[in-house]
Amino acid sequence: MANYELNAEVRELKGTSASRRLRREAGKTPGIVYGGEKEPTQVTLELKELNKAFEDEGFFSHIIKLNVAGATETVLVKDVQRHAYKPVILHVDFQRVSNTTVIKQHIPLHFINEESCKGVKLQGGKVKHTISDVLVICEAGKLPEFIEVDLADAEVGTILHLSDLKLPEGVEILELTHGSDHDSAVLSIDVPKGAAADEEGESEEAAAE
Length: 209
Prior knowledge:
This protein is α+β, with helices and mostly antiparallel strands. It has four helices and 13 strands.
């Protein structure tokens, strides 16, 4: 498992104007660290360091070591505010956690064998994705980087639901804790519309003969 670490400074000046000046003049991003038994701490982080960390998908589903004023906090990224159209991170929220802290976090789905599965390669089907990540609940130390979805045996007509996903021990999908009527579809493998129409036409012609 990768180790993630960031450096931050305690932020003395607060408010919208001060935050805007930080981003514009110092190339830094404001943030906050909260949770646990400590008071929230306002911090600043180097924008370049943040941008580099954010390029790694796993950064958002791992415990991070955050060095602040000579002390180290173990945190998770809980919220990121981005500029509407510029590649600028406006603010980051970090939650203090320990390995046993029960948390809720969005985890990406990684689909494998999508193009080589029977439903696509042999039956001409098309994979239709409904969701690309799931909200899980677990202890922070058991948080997976991603959830792998193997489509090797999937055929045309397959509909994969949340309950079909294979989860690590101790990890639950939050939606499923609310009952079976929350068992949403993750993806389906359908016959392309044109192909379906052709098959229907051929069937009608055969029946007429």
